[in-house]
Design a protein that fits this description.
Radius of gyration of chain B: 18 Å
CATH superfamily of one domain in chain A: P-loop containing nucleotide triphosphate hydrolases
CATH architecture of one domain in chain A: 3-Layer(aba) Sandwich
Number of strands of chain B: 9
Strand order of the largest sheet of chain A: 8-5-9-10-4-11-12-13-14
Mean pLDDT of chain B: 86
Protein name (chain A): Elongator complex protein 4
CATH architecture of chain B: 3-Layer(aba) Sandwich
Strand content of chain B: 15-25%
Largest sheet of chain B: 9 strands, mixed
InterPro entries (chain A): Elongator_complex_protein_4, P-loop_NTPase
Keywords (chain A): Cytoplasm, Nucleus, tRNA processing
Family (chain A): Belongs to the ELP4 family.
Pathway (chain A): tRNA modification; 5-methoxycarbonylmethyl-2-thiouridine-tRNA biosynthesis
Oligomer: heterodimer
Number of strands of chain A: 14
Low-confidence stretches of chain A: 8-13, 352-397
Order of helices and strands of chain A: EEHEEHEHEHHEHEHEHEHHEHEHEEHHH
Number of helices of chain B: 7
Order of helices and strands of chain B: EHEHHEHEHHEHEEEE
Strand content of chain A: 15-25%
Distance between the termini of chain A: 77 Å
Structural class of chain A: alpha/beta
Structural class of chain B: alpha/beta
Radius of gyration of chain A: 29 Å
CATH topology of one domain in chain A: Rossmann fold
Chain lengths: 441, 240
């Protein structure tokens, strides 16, 4: 027998709808999370039989839930079976986003938007840079050519109730409630047994997604960190036995920080799951949200899936992380009206603020007040006692100015200067072709 | 054993790693080398957190067909998760006795020496609820059983609080002959360097000719699908 054998793929059963083979390894099948940029970070998508854990430590936002909803929506539109484990699954499902209403109108809108933007930012670029691609901070959204891999969703659209009903009736969508009766807390063992029986009962021909938004929320009772890790560990070994299942879990905000589970808690979570990411929202810290006004939070990567390889595929194939060329990029996320985007984080112009200012804001306000008030005072020079007292603080200053003016300082000239110093409302930094000066602020 | 470090056989090797620099590759590498060098010797993999599928596909990269070794009995793969009970936290604490009872006969079967036992993740056992006492008893028994037949024992422990050794780590450090410390770069993830490895000796080890690697001269590596490539500090492809 010849020792040369053609390597034939024995994994013919891998071809579930809505999956594709991972880049770099044909034995790994991956499926989309519903967010193209998150797929990119994971190295193309979430591999089957893997567990994605999302931590969103901010109490006042629910980005973890949002990612779960994308995960569910992608499953439903891809024809996968979906299990939702939630205290109130109906409420959760009611807020799931859905496809854009009619693709033509949205594309029209988007096209108009981009056209509008283009006309607004008509700037001249030095010739040697003109042929370069525009600077991109995220990966492109899926086009229609990607088929049923990653669908386009629109956050302004809700899933139609009919779709949910049909999915429930056809057993495509299964709710698992969290029924902690009375003071007894939910038994992790029972929950695992229920999930296990649901997985066993599903037909292996269809892909199964398990979504658990807010694990360890108050409805779960007082879960200790041992129990959470035991749950993750057992669920993961359950997934390993069933190569057609993948799971996405968000941990409740209070359990998503080191201060809750003790030192090294996030690292433990990273070890206990295949992929673990933190979405740290800026809303908890006003100074951060003012530094990064165009983003809603930072993304920290704890671990990434490598179900069949030594090295993490994402290191080589993720555009956003950019490890293939040099060090890792800083990542952030933003939630626009239409979608949630993960993108690279860059400092803005002048290293920090989005607007470049020529003078501090407070000065401008004073000047305005000064201009208006001095005009008045000039008219009523001898009625200084009946001052317009809308701005008492500025009045004191102006009296002094006025006295100075009475000592033969030409006021009109000063006023002219002040009026010229009036700032324009909108300030942008751009090189404009129709203006001779270099920069227009 | 473990080519760039050339460790002797029959030792207890502790491998510590961190989340950003998992040391899976050292386990797989030592297994592959052992299988190739000592033909017919026994290999026991106690897998707490990894699946057999991953072991198989990684072994394929070094031209090893695990199914063949499993069939011939030279590899015993013990999936620990299916042998342990739920830690309930009540008085009837589960212990790892039952697990050891499964491993012991496997060790006794390997009549000729040069066996290799890999425990791929001891920290997870602690994290999911086994008490430190349970785990130390289990480790002590496992170590004794390995020493009796002259087998090499490799234990991997995850460090989650670098700089502040936990109790488990202190215990493991006492019983190990050598310790391989795998650390990520302190400057963050990089595309050209995956991490660095230092080699320390255990407290009771008599070092004779074994070249240790202090942290300051740690060996750097870059991980690819086919295994790690090692290089001295400052000589990565990104630098040169």
């Amino acid at each position: 027998m010849s020792s040369f054998k053609r390597k034939s793929s024995t994994n013919s059963e891998l071809s579930y709808p809505g999956t594709r083979t991972a880049p770099g390894n044909i034995s790994t099948a991956i499926t989309s999370t519903g967010i193209p940029s998150l797929d990119d970070i994971l190295g193309g998508g979430l591999p089957l039989s893997c567990l994605l854990l999302l931590l969103a430590p901010d109490h006042h936002s629910s980005y973890g839930d949002l990612v779960q909803r994308y995960f569910v929506a992608e499953g439903l539109s891809g024809g996968h079976r979906v299990i939702v484990v939630h205290p109130n699954p109906k409420e959760f499902m009611a807020d799931v986003m859905w496809h854009p209403k009619s693709s033509s109108s949205t594309t029209d809108l988007e096209a108009r938007d981009t056209k509008h933007e283009a006309s607004e930012q008509k700037i001249k670029i030095a010739w040697r840079y003109e042929s370069m691609k525009p600077f991109q901070t995220t990966v492109v959204s899926p086009s229609s050519s990607t088929g049923d891999y990653c669908h386009a969703f629109d956050l302004s659209n809700r899933i139609p109730e009919a779709v949910v009903h049909v999915a429930i009736n056809s057993k495509q969508l299964t709710y698992v409630g969290i029924d902690a009766d009375g003071l007894d807390q939910i038994s992790i063992v029972d929950m695992l047994a229920r999930l296990s029986s649901l997985i066993e009962s599903s037909t292996p021909k269809s892909l199964l997604r398990i979504s658990i938004p807010s694990l360890a929320a108050p409805e779960w009772g007082d879960l200790s960190n041992l129990q959470i890790l035991w749950f993750l560990y057992s669920l993961r070994s359950l997934l390993r036995k069933h190569p057609y299942v993948c799971a996405s879990i968000s941990l409740a905000p209070q359990s998503s920080t080191d201060s809750w589970g003790g030192q090294g808690w996030l690292q433990k979570l990273g070890w206990a799951s295949d992929a673990a990411l933190s979405m740290v929202a800026f809303s908890a810290n006003p100074s951060l949200s003012s530094i990064f006004p165009s983003h809603h939070g930072m993304v920290h990567i704890h671990s990434l899936p490598s179900p069949h390889t030594l090295s993490v595929p994402s290191d080589r194939f993720s555009t956003l992380r950019g490890l293939s060329s040099s060090g890792e990029n800083n990542l952030a996320f933003k939630c626009t009206r239409k979608r949630l985007i993960f993108e690279t984080l860059h400092l803005d112009l002048e290293g920090g603020v989005s607007e470049r200012r020529t003078a501090p804001v407070t000065d401008n306000i004073d000047l305005n007040a000064f201009a208006g008030e001095t005009g008045n005072l000039h008219q009523h020079l001898h009625q200084t006692q009946s001052l317009d007292t809308t701005a008492v603080a500025s009045v004191d200053v102006q009296l002094e100015e006025d006295e100075a003016a009475s000592k033969n300082i030409p006021i009109p000239v000063a006023l002219e200067e002040v009026r010229q110093a009036k700032p324009k409302k909108k300030k942008t930094v751009a090189f404009q072709s129709d203006r001779p000066e270099l920069y227009d602020f | 054993m473990l080519s760039p470090f050339n460790l002797p056989e029959g030792i207890v090797l502790l491998i510590t790693d961190e989340l950003n620099s998992p040391a899976d590759f050292l386990l797989h590498r030592s297994f592959a080398e052992h299988v190739k060098s000592a033909k017919g010797a026994k290999n026991i993999v106690l897998s707490v957190s990894d699946s057999i599928a991953r072991w198989k596909s990684i072994a394929l990269k070094s031209n090893l067909n695990l199914a063949q070794y499993l069939a011939s009995g030279s590899l015993e793969f013990v999936d620990v998760s299916s042998h342990i009970q739920v830690p309930t936290g009540r008085s009837d604490q589960p212990n790892l006795h039952s697990l050891f009872n499964i491993i012991q006969p496997l060790l006794e079967k390997s009549d000729h020496g040069l066996a290799l036992v890999i425990l791929d993740d001891i920290s997870t056992l602690e994290w999911i609820g086994f008490s430190l006492l349970d785990i130390t008893r289990f480790t002590r028994a496992l170590r004794a059983a390995c020493l009796q037949i002259g087998a090499t024992l490799i234990i991997r422990h995850h460090i989650v609080t670098p700089g502040e050794p936990d109790d488990m780590f202190r215990y493991l450090l006492q019983i190990c002959t050598y310790r391989l410390e795998v650390q990520p770069l302190s400057s963050g993830r990089s595309g050209t360097v995956s991490g660095e490895i230092a080699l320390h000796s255990g407290p009771g080890t008599i070092v004779d000719g074994q070249k240790l690697i202090p942290r300051s001269l740690a060996l750097q590596y870059k991980l690819t699908d086919n295994g790690p490539t090692f290089f001295e500090k400052g000589t990565s492809s990104g630098v040169l």
